[in-house]
Amino acid sequence: MDFKPVDRIVDKYQEKRTALISILHEIQGEYSHLPEGALRRVASRLRMDLNDIYGVATFYKSFSLIPKGKHSVTLCLGTACHVRGGPKILREMKKLLKIEPGQTTEDRKFSLNVVNCLGVCAIGPVMFVDGKFYGEMNPVKAKRIIDKINKNNRNKRKNGVKS
Amino acid sequence: MRKIKSVSDLEKWREAILEKEKGHEFIISVCGGTGCQAYGCQKVKAAFQKELKREGMKEKVALKITGCPGFCERGPLVTIYPQNFFYQRVKAEDVPLIISETIQHGRKVEHLLFEDPMDHHKITSSQEIPFYRTQMRLLLSHNDLVDPTRTEDYLAIGGYGSLAKVLFQMRPIEVIEEIKASGLRGRGGAGYPTAKKWESCRKAPGETKYVICNCDEGDPGAFMDRSLLEGNPHSILEGMLIGAYAIGANEGFIYVRQEYPLAHKNAGIAIKQARKAGLLGKNILGSGFDFDVEMAKGGGAFVCGESTALIASIEGKVGEPRSKQTHTVEQGLWGKPTNLNNVETWANVPLIIRKGSKWFSSIGTDKSKGTKIFSLVGKVKNTGLVEVPMGITLKEIIFNIGGGQQDGKRIKAVQTGGPSGGCIPASLFDVPVDFDSLTQVGSIMGSGGMIVMDEGTCMVDVAKYFVHFLQEESCGKCLPCREGLKRMGEILDRITEGKGDEESLSLLEELAEVVADTSLCGLGKTAPNPVLSALRYFRPEFEAHILQKRCPAAVCTPLIQYSISETDCTGCGACAKVCPTQAIKGEKKQSHLILVEICSKCGSCKDICKSNAVMVQ
Lengths: 163, 617
Hints:
The structure holds two protein chains of two kinds.
Chain A: H1 4-12, H2 20-31, H3 36-46, H4 50-59, E1 71-76, H5 79-83, H6 86-97, E2 110-115, E3 127-129, E4 132-134, H7 139-162
Chain B: H1 7-22, E1 26-31, H2 34-38, H3 41-54, E2 61-66, E3 78-81, E4 85-87, H4 95-105, E5 114-115, E6 122-123, H5 130-133, H6 151-156, H7 161-169, H8 172-182, H9 194-203, E7 210-215, H10 224-231, H11 233-247, E8 251-256, H12 261-277, E9 292-297, H13 307-314, E10 338-342, H14 343-355, H15 357-361, E11 371-378, E12 384-389, H16 394-401, E13 411-416, E14 422-425, H17 435-440, E15 449-454, H18 459-473, H19 479-496, H20 504-518, H21 522-526, H22 529-547, E16 562-564, H23 574-578, E17 584-585, E18 593-594, H24 604-608, E19 614-616
Parallel strand pairs in B: 1-2, 7-8, 7-10, 8-9, 11-15
Antiparallel strand pairs in B: 1-3, 3-4, 5-6, 11-12, 13-14, 13-15, 16-19, 17-18
Helix pairs in contact in B: 7-11, 7-14, 8-9, 8-11, 10-11, 10-12, 11-14, 18-19, 18-22, 19-20, 20-22
């Protein structure tokens, strides 16, 4: 594997062991997950035990050791979203995408995540899809968002074939 | 950006900014907070930019993208100064009308004004809206005036004036005395006196000391800290600078949870700007005092809101709490004396220095001074951020500010203090909101989440929610918390599935006691609170699940059934179309029927039915 991006990130943080979490965040931003090779490289660059790095990578929920899907669907299940019907949306999403939270669809198109609070409680239940917040959700609206992504992808493919 | 080397430089810069602002006849403030972004405020902003350019008004009108004014539910929010017209639910299409009517002719755009739900009259300024009327917005009011990415905006409202006062007119010990006299207590949850913490850290032996700002606002349903750091990051930096001076620290960290990208971004911008201006770094304002701040990002672990776990996380380690036999003010980050305060605590500091401890201590109750920001959310009409003087009753917050019930269902409880807190029943809504009163009724103030619950909320389900939440977030270090919460969750699962028996509740209480008594950190110690308070006030709901196998709020799916009222059904077919399992049958314009065996109980039919014909029992 090409370590250039990993080295660039480690250099940016001047090989500081204390910057490990920030380094891992940036590596995940680069590869959409934490590849084993990258973790090994980080271990050798920071002169740390791979076990310790693995410990950090698995302790914090925002890190993933497996590749994420092209589209990220994050559902907030904080208390406010919970009492306003968040679990119903989760049931619908699980059924629609046929995966559990934390998993990615087989075609690597969608990843489904659940978070404890996105801090936008006033407009809950909230969904965060590909970097965009959607407020006042319900199972029907949530399904529409996924349908729209699928439709856009189909259109792109169609146009791609034509051109 | 200028480099400021002295107090007179700072004041000169401030004068220049104010002089320049005089040139603007109008200020258009568009809320750029996360809530309004979800409603599309970026499009509104772009429309204003385009329209102002087209009309050649860029000199006359200042367009500001500000922090969150709190009334997220009515977003996107736009305020026009100096008229103080408060427009809500603004769309990009409304922008040309705002320019032509309000900016060019000084007239209101009626349909964008807030309508009083009681008498339907239109309200012009935000101060007259019931949601804002009883609030005391000492901290949040700055959010409407400041573009968080511009140091100049913070200076225009007197920013960094308190820092100058502290550095040149007060000795560190006097700063601590002033904060002590104000009676400020930590806003993160426990309510520990801020000055006492600073004093201990100042007295702790060691050359190197640190200050930390805790923005790991993990309590679900709370977003005060996000809005403060996102909307007015310089006020937090000023608070940290003053605290660091008082304690004798030269380095600081702002720890932001990973779920708050905008807060992280805006705080990062503020730090860079402050460094450039000389407000962070060496010899600040020529006083000889050095201080700098770095950003640290969390990784989605709730336990990292706990001080020792947060410190481990900044050190790049797994966020496990440690025993607090030695306090962090003595041995914290890298073993050095460390003072950690919550965002809202830091935000109060410059205000106290500017207006004096006497003024601050005149607000609030005997033992809880100043204001507190709450995030009022859940089953209440007006949701958003609410800043009120301590001592105000829950009733005032929920009914006067929050506007009461949301959709015809009676409000029965409010949850405060997040997973460490509890549910307070409506019969106790006359309780004043301060640190000590809320503890007496079995909850805590916590960081300020206030989740309103109505008859449609099942208290067993809420208790189960919190136990599962905490079980998942438990770091696993202590057995009682790791295993005890798991077993408590299993008992609650069984109750909500209709499999609970008469022993379930006593077993639950016994386990709760053990978990609370034998866990190391605050997470485990307070984990049983939501269950115990629900049992204390809503025991009949638990008993209905166990004895009658019934969920009174119709939430627990194994215990409920959906059906369609023959008399109310208009046969529109909307429910059949939306049903994911095709469990609804019926001819058009004829009453429909739910096939119970196929129904997945998702509730989509009930959500979509316009004639309220879907019943749930």
